[in-house]
């Protein structure tokens, strides 16, 4: 029903923002070890600049619970002496902070020019098909979350997939996707072939 003679106010026509709030989560506090790590980080800055340690605090939150919940944002705000809204600004700006639970392995396929020209889109499609998820989703086993990312700085070894923000698989092709996932399940991060992965040689160990 509409109160305007020519305008249909059907619910589907209302604008809905695509922005999703972070999960609320459980009440959050650092473990003693992470509190000590945060205290060491914040001690590097002047006492009236505690907010300079906000990225370190959020990294520790994510390390502890796998993502940054709204409860954790409130906790970080008390730690760095700012408002929860300011913490949320940071969390939503940096894509490497997750606002809801993710899988054991977060696969971030680079979609910038070099990777795009070398088939990154087909790699994403192959991963999506193998895992049964769309980008942004987590597979039914909770093992893999699939996302897309901008340039990872390894353009000469495109297409590149970043895993858990710190590890790389280079030159991944759609036909190697099943083996790539199988190896990750079986051997974990040690299965990756990326020059930025600690202890790995540049090259292609996925073949
Ligand atoms: S374009 Fe993909 S790593 Fe640079």
Layout: helices, strands, pairs:
Blueprint: H1 32-42, H2 54-65, H3 70-80, H4 84-93, E1 105-110, H5 113-117, H6 120-131, E2 144-149, E3 161-163, E4 167-169, H7 177-187
Parallel strand pairs: 1-2
Antiparallel strand pairs: 1-3, 3-4
Helix pairs in contact: 1-2, 2-3, 3-4
3D architecture notes:
The chain is an alpha+beta fold and 207 residues long. Helices cover 35% and strands 9% of the residues. It has helices at residues 32-42, 54-65, 70-80, 84-93, 113-117, 120-131, 177-187; strands at residues 105-110, 144-149, 161-163, 167-169. Strands 2-1-3-4 form a 4-stranded mixed β-sheet, with helices on one face. The longest helix has 12 residues, at 54-65. The chain is elongated and about 55 Å long. Mean pLDDT is 87; it is low at 197-207. FE2/S2 (inorganic) cluster (FES) binds at residues 110, 112-115, 151-155, 158, 160.
Task: Please supply descriptive tags for the structure shown above.
207 residues, Arc Repressor Mutant, subunit A, Glutaredoxin, 2 domains, 4-stranded mixed sheet, elongated, binds FE2/S2 (inorganic) cluster
Question: Which sheet architecture does the biggest sheet show?
Answer: 4 strands, mixed
Specify the helix fraction band: 25-40%
Per DSSP, what share of the residues sits in E-state strands of 2 or more residues?
5-15%
CATH topology of the largest domain: Glutaredoxin
Strand order of the largest sheet: 2-1-3-4
Shape from CA axes? elongated
The overall pLDDT average reads 87
Distance between the termini: 61 Å
Structural domain tally:
2
Write the H/E string, N to C. Answer: HHHHEHHEEEH
Computed structural class: alpha+beta
Number of strands: 4
Count of individual helical segments: 7
* Ligands bound to this protein structure: FE2/S2 (inorganic) cluster
Spans of at least 5 consecutive residues with low confidence: 197-207
